[in-house]
Design goal:
single chain, mainly alpha, Hydantoin permease, globular, binds 4-fluoro-L-phenylalanine
C-alpha cells in the first residue's frame, strides 16, 4: 500500500513542507502581537517552554503515528486500535480531525484572500489606479469572495498535483522566498526611525503579565495552532516520510524553524508599529493597549506604508506577498488532510477529490462571509481553542497508551538505530503518555471555566 502512496523525496523537501505548514499567519501575524501585548520577552519564554515541552512531543506523536501507519488519521488510528471500541473512537477522532482541518481552512482562506487583495492593491496603487486600489482594500462581499476563490484556486492547484510534484515542490520554492522576504523587510524596518522603541516593547520581559493563567491558555492554543497540531496535518505529512528518516531530529528541525520565524517576525511587526507611531499613526486602543489583529494588519500597517511614499508601497507589496505565501504553504497542508482521507478510504482519484473538497470548503468560506459577525469568530474559537488541543490529546493517548512500547521503539529505530541510548527515548515515551495529556487537560479545563 505504501508504494502506491505519495512520498517526500528528501529530508529537505519534508522539512520545507512541514515547516511550511507550521509557518503561517499564526507566526507572522499572531505571535508578535500576542507577545507585544502580553509581557514581551516573558511571553516568548512561556511560548518557548510550551513549544518544547508540549508542542514538540505532540508533534512527534503525530509524525510517529503517521509514519508507522503510512496512512491518513482515520485509517491510522483504527489500525492501531486493539478493541472495537477503540476502533470506533479512533475513527471518530480522525474524522473530527479532517472536519476541523476543513473548517480551519475555510476561515484561513478568507484571511489569506484579504492578504492577496492587499498585495494586489499595492501594485495597482503603484500603477496609479485609484479606483481598483480602493475596491481592493474595501471589505465588500465581492472582493472577499474573489479573494477566497483565488486563494482556494492556488491551494487546489498545488494539492491536485500530489505530494512530490505539488506539496513538496512548491514548499521548496515558497519557503526560501518567504525567509528571504522576511529578512529583507526586517532589515529595512529596523533601519527606520522609531524602530528601536518597538524592539524594547518586544524584548523587555514583564513576568507579571506572562505568568497569568489566561495567557498560558492562549500560549497553548497558539503553540498548537502554530505547529499545525491536532488536525492530522503533521500525521499525514509523517505518513509520506520514508523509513530512513530520523524522526526526533526532523521534528526538532520543524519546531525550530517554526519558532525562529515567529521570533523573527516579531522583529518586523513590533518595530513597524513604532515606526508608524513615529510617523503619526495611532497604534493604541482607547484603553491604552496596542492595536492588534485585523486593525493592526489592515489599518495600522497600510497607514504606515502610505506615510512612507514610494518605498512604502514597495514594502507593502512585499509584506502582503510574504503573508500570502505563508498562508499558502499552510493551506495546502490543511487541504491534504481531507483529500488523503477521501483518496485512501473512498478510492476517489486525487484530482477529483481535491477539486470537490476544495470546492466544498470554498462554499463554507462563502457561508462564513455571508454571516460574518456570527460565524467567523465562532469557527475560529471552536476549531483552534477547543478542537485542536483535544484531538492533540487523543493522538498523545494513542502513542502513549495504545501503541506498544516496542512498536514505538521499532518505529524510531528505523531512522536512528541508537535511539535507545539517547535522551529522547529516556524522556519522551513517558512524557507523551503522562505529562502531555495531563497538561492539555488541565489547561483545557481551565479554559472551560474561564
Ligand atoms: N500553523 C499555521 C499558522 O501558524 O498559521 C496554521 C495551521 C496550519 C493550523 C495547518 C492548522 C493546520 F492544520
Amino acid at each position: 500500500m505504501a508504494s502506491a502512496r505519495g512520498q517526500f523525496s528528501s529530508r529537505f523537501g519534508f522539512v520545507m513542507a512541514a515547516a511550511g505548514s507550521a509557518v503561517g499567519l499564526g507566526n507572522i501575524w499572531g505571535f508578535p502581537t500576542q507577545a507585544a501585548s502580553n509581557g514581551g520577552a516573558a511571553f516568548l519564554i512561556v511560548y518557548l517552554i510550551l513549544a518544547f515541552t508540549l508542542a514538540y512531543p505532540a508533534l512527534m506523536a503525530e509524525l510517529i503515528i503517521g509514519r508507522h501507519a503510512h496512512a491518513n488519521a482515520v485509517t491510522a488510528l483504527r489500525g492501531l486500535s486493539h478493541t472495537p471500541a477503540q476502533r470506533r473512537f479512533g475513527g471518530a477522532a480522525g474524522t473530527i480531525g479532517f472536519v476541523v482541518a476543513s473548517l480551519i481552512l475555510s476561515f484561513y482562506a478568507i484571511v489569506a484572500g484579504w492578504m492577496m487583495a492587499f498585495c494586489v492593491s499595492s501594485i495597482t496603487a503603484l500603477l496609479g489606479s485609484a479606483a481598483a486600489t480602493s475596491w481592493l482594500t474595501s471589505f465588500g462581499f465581492m472582493r472577499n469572495e474573489l479573494g477566497v476563490l483565488a486563494f482556494m484556486g492556488l491551494t487546489i492547484m498545488i494539492v491536485a498535483r500530489g505530494v512530490q510534484n505539488g506539496i513538496e515542490k512548491w514548499s521548496e520554492r515558497l519557503m526560501p522566498m518567504l525567509l528571504f522576504t522576511l529578512v529583507v523587510l526586517v532589515a529595512y524596518v529596523l533601519s527606520l526611525e522609531g524602530a528601536m522603541e518597538g524592539l524594547k516593547v518586544y524584548l523587555l520581559p514583564d513576568f507579571q503579565r506572562a505568568l497569568n493563567p489566561d495567557l498560558i491558555i492562549a500560549a497553548l492554543g497558539s503553540a498548537f495552532f502554530s505547529l499545525s497540531l491536532g488536525v492530522g496535518t503533521m500525521l499525514i505529512y509523517g505518513s509520506y516520510l520514508d523509513d530512513k528518516q530520523n524522526l526526533p531530529l526532523i521534528g526538532g528541525l520543524v519546531t525550530g524553524v517554526d519558532i525562529s520565524i515567529a521570533v523573527l517576525a516579531g522583529f518586523l511587526v513590533l518595530p513597524a508599529m513604532y515606526v508608524a507611531l513615529h510617523n503619526g499613526v495611532e497604534i493604541y486602543t482607547a484603553a491604552g493597549d496596542l492595536l492588534s489583529e485585523d486593525t493592526l494588519i489592515f489599518t495600522v500597517l497600510p497607514e504606515l506604508f502610505a506615510s512612507m511614499g514610494l518605498a512604502g508601497t514597495l514594502v507593502s507589496v512585499l509584506f502582503f506577498f510574504l503573508m500570502s505565501i505563508a498562508a499558502l504553504t499552510s493551506s495546502i497542508s490543511m487541504l491534504e488532510v481531507p483529500v488523503a482521507y477521501a483518496v485512501e478510504e473512498h478510492d476517489v482519484g486525487r484530482q477529483s477529490a481535491t477539486y470537490a473538497i476544495g470546492g466544498i470548503i470554498a462554499v463554507f468560506s462563502t457561508i462564513i462571509l455571508l454571516n460574518f459577525d456570527t460565524l467567523f469568530g465562532l469557527v475560529i474559537t471552536v476549531t483552534t481553542r477547543y478542537s485542536q488541543p483535544l484531538i492533540g490529546f487523543v493522538f498523545c493517548i494513542y502513542v502513549g497508551w495504545i501503541l506498544h512500547r516496542d512498536q514505538l521503539l521499532q518505529e524510531l529505530r528505523k531512522g536512528n538505530p541508537d535511539i535507545e541510548r539517547g535522551l529522547f527515548w529516556k524522556i519522551w515515551p513517558w512524557w507523551v503518555r503522562l505529562v502531555c495529556p495531563a497538561i492539555i487537560l488541565a489547561i483545557f479545563a481551565r479554559s472551560l471555566l474561564a
